[in-house]
C-alpha cells in the first residue's frame, strides 16, 4: 500500500474515476465468486511472451484460500490476502499492482484486491493484497474511512 499526495487535484473524466473501498468484503470475495482484474501482463507463454500494449481485463475466479495456501506454502496469509485465478486465467509478468474490482448492483465499483505475486510460470492462482485489511491504515494516514 502506498499513499500518494498529488501536486494538483485529479480531474475525473470518462477514463479517470474513483473506486470505493469497503471494510466488509466477505460476501464479495468469497470462494466461487468472480472479480474483474485489469493488467498489462503477458497473455501467452511466460518464457516467450511480451507484455501487451493494450490494457487487458479478465474475470478471475475467487479460489478457496486453501488453493494458495497449498501452492505458496508459508507466503500466503489468509486474513490479509485473496487467492484468485486458475491455471488458464491468472495474473502474470507486468500485472503486479493491478486492481481486483467488482461492480455492485447500484453500479458502484469497489476495489477488493491489488495483485501482489503470482506463480513463476503464471500457471496457478495469483495472490492479491486484501485492501480491506488496510482500512485502519488508510484512515490513519488519510482520514478517509472505508465504506
UniProtKB/TrEMBL annotation:
<dbReference type="InterPro" id="IPR043504">
    <property type="entry name" value="Peptidase_S1_PA_chymotrypsin"/>
</dbReference>
<dbReference type="InterPro" id="IPR009003">
    <property type="entry name" value="Peptidase_S1_PA"/>
</dbReference>
<dbReference type="GO" id="GO:0004252">
    <property type="term" value="F:serine-type endopeptidase activity"/>
</dbReference>
<dbReference type="GO" id="GO:0006508">
    <property type="term" value="P:proteolysis"/>
</dbReference>
<keyword id="KW-1015">Disulfide bond</keyword>
<dbReference type="InterPro" id="IPR001254">
    <property type="entry name" value="Trypsin_dom"/>
</dbReference>
<protein>
    <submittedName>
        <fullName>Trypsin</fullName>
    </submittedName>
</protein>
<dbReference type="Pfam" id="PF00089">
    <property type="entry name" value="Trypsin"/>
</dbReference>
Amino acid at each position: 500500500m502506498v499513499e500518494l499526495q498529488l501536486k494538483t487535484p485529479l480531474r475525473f473524466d470518462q477514463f479517470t474515476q474513483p473506486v470505493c473501498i469497503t471494510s466488509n468484503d466477505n460476501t464479495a470475495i468469497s470462494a466461487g465468486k468472480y472479480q474483474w482484474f485489469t493488467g498489462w501482463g503477458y497473455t501467452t507463454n511466460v518464457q516467450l511472451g511480451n507484455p501487451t500494449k493494450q490494457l487487458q481485463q479478465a474475470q478471475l475466479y475467487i479460489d478457496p484460500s486453501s488453493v494458495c495456501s497449498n501452492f505458496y506454502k508459508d507466503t500466503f496469509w489468509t486474513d490479509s490476502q485473496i487467492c484468485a485465478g486458475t491455471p488458464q486465467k491468472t495474473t502474470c509478468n507486468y500485472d503486479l499492482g493491478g486492481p481486483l474490482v467488482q461492480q455492485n448492483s447500484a453500479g458502484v465499483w469497489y476495489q477488493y484486491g491489488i495483485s501482489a505475486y503470482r506463480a513463476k510460470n503464471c500457471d496457478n492462482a495469483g495472490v492479491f493484497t486484501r485492501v480491506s485489511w488496510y482500512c485502519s491504515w488508510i484512515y490513519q494516514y488519510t482520514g478517509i474511512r472505508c465504506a
